[in-house]
Design goal:
The chain has 135 residues and is mainly β. It contains no helices and nine strands. Helices cover 0% and strands 57% of the residues.
Length: 135
Amino acid sequence: MKVNSIENNGKYVGYIWKSNEKTPKVFNGDIFDESLDNNDNPFIIEGQLYDEERAVSYSIKFVDGEYLINKFEVNSNELGEFVMKTFYANRIKGHKKLCFRQYWRSEKDEFCENMEVLQPKELVFVGFKEEEKEK
């Protein structure tokens, strides 16, 4: 669901990447206290924050001069089935991978004789995973 702000009483893991920075700011159980005013400069280009205790994930993007913030209730049945995906983090120090839940929903597909097929719907950030070191 689209929201206008992020609750600042959570303990978030994730990152935000500001327009004037070469690397993102990493959150490791920290409170989010950044401004999300569309007129602020520097601004947050993108961010992914997850509060495990409340099972809430936020996706932040700055597009055409305004913030687009999506909030996901991770344990909600509304999101449907998911598979776990991990991606290497770009410019985040350390050996972390970004973890996401890829949610799928069943929809009729005109190219499959209008049968129900699973379609990817949401990619929801759920924290970091330490990269396994080779032995």
